[in-house]
Amino acid sequence: MSSTSRWLAGPDAGDDKYSRGVLAAVTGSLQYPGAATLAVEGAWRTGVGLVRLGAPLRVQDLVLGRRPETIVSTPEDLGRADAYLLGSGLDDPAEDEMLRDTLVGIADSGAPVVLDAGALGFAMRVRGLCLVTPHAGELARMLGWLGRESERADVVASPAEHAAFAAENTGAVVVLKGATTHIATPSGAVTSVAAETNRLATAGSGDVLAGILGGLVAQHAPDLATREQLAELAAAGVSLHSRAAARLGDRPLAALEIAESVAYATAELNGP
Ligand SMILES: NC(=O)C1=CN([C@@H]2O[C@H](COP(=O)(O)OP(=O)(O)OC[C@H]3O[C@@H](n4cnc5c(N)ncnc54)[C@H](O)[C@@H]3O)[C@@H](O)[C@H]2O)[C@@H](O)CC1
Ligand SMILES: Nc1ncnc2c1ncn2[C@@H]1O[C@H](COP(=O)(O)OP(=O)(O)O)[C@@H](O)[C@H]1O
């Protein structure tokens, strides 16, 4: 079994929806409602057992219209999960005290967490395993919070080194997105995954990746013990995202198509 397909294996006869992993996502907002649909679709298509979504009512309705399998609630009433995805399409949680308290509670819970976009600021608070998924501009912002003032151009000029610095100083596994995605662990190891297609450069594509990573982390939460394993899972997720786009051919892509394609890309990567 390849290091990628190890993380993409399907259920066996003894499995049920709970043993296949429960992901709880706090994604989407009134400003960016669509990000929740993209992340939730990406997560479902990895084969996770159940996806819960905590979001405003309008966002819940949009997601249910697309994926009625999802269990929806407000963020405060999310319930128990094996892993959490926080942040894609989220307004700045610092502006909303109730939302911030909910995210702090999740960060403190010890469960594995994937942080994207509006929740990247929680990286230092997460007690369990933590994966963060910034693009170059977001990583520059994170580095400022860590006391290393940086511009997006600095990150682009030496991406692996900046990703490793952020990983070492937050304790999180950093997935620095781009045409080549650099995955850094706090010990300083960096794995680089070149995208199979530049068609991934489209709005919402990163929200789909966050959903994929959340879905995979939820499926493997019981056997994820180290940050090195989490980094290996992240590399598999990045390859899956890339394959999902590339298998659609060299044509313009919308992010939801990439999410839909994830299930078929899984089958391709797992081989016959
Ligand atoms: N359909 C959706 O709901 C989408 C939601 N998204 C969410 O949007 C939020 C912001 O993500 P970003 O990656 O845009 O954050 P960035 O930090 O790159 O940009 C923040 C804001 O700056 C502006 N901006 C930055 N670069 C620009 C440029 N070159 N030209 C014009 N405007 C520019 C945009 O208004 C943008 O929203 C995240 O929460 C993300 O998850 C995006 O993923 C796109 C799709
Ligand atoms: N030129 C490119 N070639 C290939 N993949 C890219 C390119 N630019 C960005 N990507 C990928 O597309 C996704 C974009 O994510 P992100 O920047 O968060 O956008 P969004 O916020 O719109 O979802 C990431 O997975 C990134 O690795």
UniProtKB/TrEMBL annotation:
Homotetramer. Keywords: ATP-binding, Lyase, NAD, NADP, Nucleotide-binding. It catalyses: (6S)-NADHX + ADP = AMP + phosphate + NADH + H(+); (6S)-NADPHX + ADP = AMP + phosphate + NADPH + H(+). Catalyzes the dehydration of the S-form of NAD(P)HX at the expense of ADP, which is converted to AMP. Together with NAD(P)HX epimerase, which catalyzes the epimerization of the S- and R-forms, the enzyme allows the repair of both epimers of NAD(P)HX, a damaged form of NAD(P)H that is a result of enzymatic or heat-dependent hydration. This is ADP-dependent (S)-NAD(P)H-hydrate dehydratase. AMP binds at K177, G178, A179, T180, T181, G206. It comes from the Bacteria. Its cofactor is Mg(2+). HAMAP family: NADHX_dehydratase. GO terms for molecular function: ADP-dependent NAD(P)H-hydrate dehydratase activity; ATP binding; NAD(P)HX epimerase activity. Residues 1-269 form the YjeF C-terminal domain. The lineage of its organism: Bacteria, Bacillati, Actinomycetota, Actinomycetes, Micrococcales. GO terms for biological process: metabolite repair; nicotinamide nucleotide metabolic process. (6S)-NADPHX binds at A35, G89, H135, D207. InterPro entries: Carbohydrate_kinase_pred_CS, CARKD, Ribokinase-like. It comes from Agrococcus casei LMG 22410. Its EC number is 4.2.1.136. Belongs to the NnrD/CARKD family. The keyword ATP-binding applies.
